[in-house]
Amino acid sequence: MATDVATPKPALDKPLMHYGHRVLDRTAPGSAETEYRILGIRPLTPHIGAEISGVDLSQPIGDDLAEELRQALLEWKVIFFRDQHRFASEHHVALAAVWGEPEVNPFFPKGDTVGVSRLAKDAMAVGNENIWHSDHSFMAAPALGSVLRAVEVPSAGGDTMWADMAVAYDNLSESMKDRIDGLTAVHDWVPSWGAVMTDEQIARFRETLPPVEHPVVVRHPQSGRKVLYVNEPFTTRIVGLSDSESRELLDELVLQARIPEFQVRFHWQPDSVAIWDNIAVQHYAINDYYPQRRVMERIAIAGVPLS
Ligand code: SIN
Fold first, then answer.
1. Whose CA is nearest to atom 1 of ligand 1?
2. Which atom of ligand 1 is found nearest the CA of 268?
3. DSSP H or E stretch at residue 93
4. Of 5, 66, 139, 154, which sits most exposed with the smallest number of CB within 10 A?
5. How far is the CA of 283 from the centre of ligand 1 (A)?
6. Using 50, 70 and 90 to split pLDDT, how confident is the model at 16?
7. Which residues form the TauD/TfdA-like domain (predicted)?
8. Does the active-site annotation cover 298?
9. What is the bridge-based pairing of β-strands 78-81 and 50-53?
10. Residue 159 CA: which ligand 1 atom is closest?
């Protein structure tokens, strides 16, 4: 399509028909550039995702390295490490501890080490994380982040994608920002995880996991940046709107994660490790490798209530 590339196109009312210029700020405007002394940073896109070199994650993590890792994650929202061949479960636990306490997804099979969940997919256990989501948004204090390690990968495919939801917010039209300002939404695991449970199982999990509410636009706990915080499987309705208004608005908002300029895609190799900021991004595990085997290990990091 021939267009004048110098002229940004205005946002149209249809979210996926907003073409042309995008605002792609990596950090909040005015933030200082960080100088890294230990880490090598190779950006995978201008605003989300960087491959990190200069670190062996099987070695003890000192204070200076921990500080740079936290800063790199805050700035890039998802960071990747390759060839971590000596990275074992105890290193996985130590790496997650750079950010906080491990938090186990209540619905995942347990791994051998406390806090480590093993996600093994094959012809019998089909991958079902191929929907844009934030981990544990159905909890009152959703996970701050996750650390994922590739144990076994298919010969091709099995990539994961992440979408920058601060940038997604920035690119909403001003009228949409005004419309969602101050709204809260209900997050609930029942429509997704509960779909394969008996009524008895649902009732048992419900005792500790009732529906929760979060602002539709949250302030990131560290950067203070505004983040669009609704996701397809777990956000069930917007408080105070009619069912149809809520559905229509949610349908539009959850589509934002699908816009390619907001995303980064990572191709796994055995012993690749990714860490993501679970408040700033959503992710999507591409399920194109069936019936091959793909085995990942994950630790989520406990979060704080969002505002
Ligand atoms: C997840 O949704 O946490 C799993 C991501 C992946 O397996 O790539």
1. 129
2. 8
3. helix 89-96
4. 5
5. 7
6. low
7. 41-299
8. yes
9. parallel
10. 8
CATH of 40-301, one of 3.40.50.620, 3.30.930.10, 3.30.2290.10, 3.60.130.10: 3.60.130.10
Instruction: Establish whether residue 285 lines the binding site of ligand 1, counting it when its CB lies within 6 angstroms of any ligand atom.
Output: yes
pTM, 2 dp: 0.93
**Active-site residue flag, 70:** no
Domain ranges within the chain, ordered by starting residue: 40-301
Take atom 5 of ligand 1 and give the residue whose Cα is closest. Answer: 285
Q: What is the pLDDT of residue 127?
A: 87
Q: Which amino acid is at 94?
A: A
Model confidence pLDDT, tens digit, residues 62-113: 999 999 999 999 999 999 999 999 999 999 999 999 999 988 788 876 655 6
Q: Name which residue leads in pLDDT, 112 or 138.
A: 138
E strand spans, the chain: 40-43, 50-53, 78-81, 102-103, 117-121, 145-152, 160-164, 184-187, 212-215, 217-219, 226-228, 235-238, 263-266, 273-277, 281-285, 294-301
**Whole-angstrom distance, CA of residue 300 vs CA of residue 255:** 25
Which pLDDT score is estimated for 109?
A: 67
Question: Residue 116: is its pLDDT beyond 90?
Answer: no
Please indicate whether residue 25, judged by its CB atom, sits closer than 6 Å to ligand 1. no
